[in-house]
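Forgive a beginner's question, but would it be possible to get a protein, spelled out as residues, together with the matching structure tokens, please?
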Amino acid sequence: MNQLHYPLVFEPILQDRIWGGTKLRDDLGKNIPTPTTGESWELSAVKGNVSVVENGAFAGKPLTELLEQYPNDILGTAVHARFGKQFPLLFKFLDAREDLSIQVHPNDELAKQRHNSFGKTEMWYVMQADPGSRIIVGFNHKSSAQEYLEKLESKQLIDILNQVPAKKGDVYFLETGTIHAIGAGIVIAEIQQTSDITYRIYDWDRVDANGNGRQLHVQEALDAMNYNTTDTQKEYTKEVNKSNSMVDCPYFTTNFLPLDGKAEVAKNGDSFTVYICTEGEYTIDLQGSTYTFKKGDTVLIPAAVTAFTLTGNATLLEIYIS
């Protein structure tokens, strides 16, 4: 067994955002640099924002360097065969003190053509929601490019969008092309394809300290958008100490694992596994060693680690590629 066979934790990449706040510090223990910190990139191979290992024998090593040296051990044989030495997913926590912009993401084909990038299929798990907060997701009726542009021009876009009250534990699966926004007062765990391509459509007429608005991508969004209504919210079971399916798509599988005691995990080496702890504390027992994690921790289990035990009282999201 080489040195890589342990749970990898990465230094958070903290991002200041015009809509950000302090909940990443107050709720998740992140050492935020500003009172408008909107995102903690927990595990990223996005160019310019590559995660660095925080713990163990490989502390200080960038994720991309480890992927060059140990692609099968980290990614897994099937994931390596499909994606090469690229890490295909991006994991974040988001704190929306204010509404995020209304936006849409392109699919793989469009993103490759325009940006030489993956598209951005994503999912949200609501970790905390203030009373009265809401998610904006999809159109509330079958729309069209013409109606979308007319409503945008008259600042009535929100009238044709689907607004859903948000509560802790809600899950939304957003296929590419789905118009959306995270509403104010919500903390989200986000799992997405490795992509930083966002078409921002409307930003509530916000301006920065210099009076400048953020760039919009109204025209780019036109042929990226799905104008049909979409069924984005996912129901899921919550059987204790079991992996309960939330989202299973070509890009990732996410399970809900409520831990109260012990869960034995066996893997086949095809894919890495990531655990996001949204509540509580737990340990990973592996080859005679015990590693302790808590709410706000994101852990990468290399694919070469095929058997381990989860113990504790915690709520976990379990993610891999199937």
Observations:
- The chain has a mean pLDDT of 94.
- Residues 8 and 231 are 35 Å apart (CA to CA).
- The helical segments are 23-26, 63-69, 71-75, 77-83, 108-115, 145-153, 218-222.
